[in-house]
């Protein structure tokens, strides 16, 4: 039982091991800013994991770069802008909703609205077609039907 608890403890605390003691800044305010920024940056090796949680070497380099920029006096926005300029906007876990990304942000809801409109039109037309009375049989067709039914 104690091995299970130890394994669960190690598994659940794995993200805490990502930031190594040698990376931690001595100034607690700068370290808190660095941790906050690191949580918003994507590990380029692990994809949908922040550099704060990742153990990859590139994530460590990015964490050190963030701390270096903060020590040099950059604001949070300047540090993020420096990293985005160097690695591209893909490094952001939550991309900005401007420029070319605006198309991606708008495309999903626009396609949903378009699909609902097409589906609603289809259902309305089907309902209208079902309610429309059909043409009756002509006299010749009715006579032929009566002959067939009599046989």
UniProtKB/TrEMBL annotation:
Keywords assigned: Cytochrome c-type biogenesis, Heme, Iron, Membrane, Metal-binding, Signal, Transmembrane, Transmembrane helix
An annotated GO BP: cytochrome complex assembly
Residues passing through the membrane, by range: 102-124
Cited Pfam families: CcmH
GO molecular function per UniProt: metal ion binding
Stored Gene3D superfamilies: Cytochrome C biogenesis protein (1.10.8.640)
GO annotations of cellular component type: plasma membrane
InterPro entries linked to this entry: C-type_cytochrome_biogenesis, CcmH/CycL/Ccl2/NrfF_N, CcmH/CycL/NrfF/Ccl2_sf
Domain CcmH/CycL/Ccl2/NrfF N-terminal, residue spans: 7-149
Signal peptide: 1-18
Task of the protein: Possible subunit of a heme lyase.
Similarity field: Belongs to the CcmH/CycL/Ccl2/NrfF family.
Protein name as it appears in the record: Cytochrome c-type biogenesis protein
Species the sequence originates in: Actibacterium naphthalenivorans
